[in-house]
Amino acid sequence: MKIADMNWMQVEAYLRRDDRCLLPIGCTEQHAYLSLAVDAILAERVAVEAAEPLGVPVFPVLPFGITPGFMAYPGTVTLKADTMLRVVQDLLDSLDHQGFRRILIVNGHGGNQPVAAAALEWMAAHPRTRVRLHNWWNAPKTMAHVKAVDPHSAHASWMENLPWTRLPGVAQPEGRKPPVDYQRYAVLSPAAARELAGDGNFGGAYERPDEDVLAMWRIAVEETRALIDGPWA
């Protein structure tokens, strides 16, 4: 259930019987022909679908993340790493103060990985509260399915091309794109990185039948739900 659909009295009542919550974090960055908000859309949606049957509240997604490499693509917005970590730490402080003791951060963006270290550091100072960072797209079963379907799947390819990340009237290119040279990409300026990556797809088919994509999605929701269930000790 979404916090947006609750009032404070309902949250207070919930905290008398449970102490779990989900905090989705994403990014606003180029995704080729898909929405700039792909990472935020998917992080929040997988969290909501996973938590709904369990009655666990999901906070609104943090829509900005760490993505300096894509700044040559209009519409991309990045946070400095220290800003992102301070924001997440402030959010954890707030949730801990309210009484949430088991917090699952559902991450939709690879560049947000520094949050994992920040969460460990935060927990050391808050031993009564457990925090997990869950990268939904590369969880073991989800990634195994993706690689079985298309081993070269990457950023802005079919694995992020779901009915709720597509844009009306925007057609996807046919076929597939060769993988981007990641070692080269990693040391380039944003402008040079855009020249290398072109439209922004990092490799793999632009789209696949919905049955393939939704099969992946169901696995991702189930893996996320399993983490909510625990164990947390």
UniProtKB/TrEMBL annotation:
It comes from Pelomonas caseinilytica. Keywords: Hydrolase, Metal-binding, Zinc. Its cofactor is Zn(2+). Belongs to the creatininase superfamily. The keyword DNA-binding does not apply. PANTHER family: 2-AMINO-5-FORMYLAMINO-6-RIBOSYLAMINOPYRIMIDIN-4(3H)-ONE 5'-MONOPHOSPHATE DEFORMYLASE, 3-DEHYDRO-SCYLLO-INOSOSE HYDROLASE. InterPro entries: Creatininase-like_sf (IPR024087), Creatininase/forma_Hydrolase (IPR003785). This is Creatininase family protein.
